[in-house]
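Revision sheet: structure tokens.
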Amino acid sequence: MAAEAADRSGDPDTRVWVRGRAAIALGYEGAALPVADRLAAEALRLDDRPSLGRLNAVMGRAHVAALRGDRSTALTLADEGRRIHDRVGSHEQDSDYAVPWWRQNVFLSLLLARLGEEHGAAEAQEAAARELPPTLPRFTTHLELHRGLMMARSGDRAGGAGYARAALEQLPPEKHSLTLRMLQAEIESVPAG
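Predicted:
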């Protein structure tokens, strides 16, 4: 519905942003991957100019590729996302819709954790943690869950799931978003090593 409303606006930036935002939300959550991929592809076809919408679409598509096991495509898209972010990152904003440097690193942290790129994931986690605004504490929990995913993927599923669960319990229950609960479920579903 949002994409249809954006289309009625006739504004290319809005059309790309709505689709890109949906693609990163679904791709990051690991939900409705065909829908995430379709919306990202539509956003990328609509306008090839660097924008936050395009950045979100590229990073959403990177997560879809990672979850489908397409490592090469995921890494290529992550590099493209870094280049776009260098041009359009919303460094001055601390909202759920902005993509400052720390938020780009949150995207990369999970992406690289999903790919088993532990060194790169740890670097992204450290970069995000350095700039994370104290007004958005749930993103610290995101980074901790990414660490739990890395533990689980390296063979310690029980340890990774426990680590992530303990991190989630540090956050007030009203801050336990659907995304965080889905990440916890993803960690718990990693095959035992």
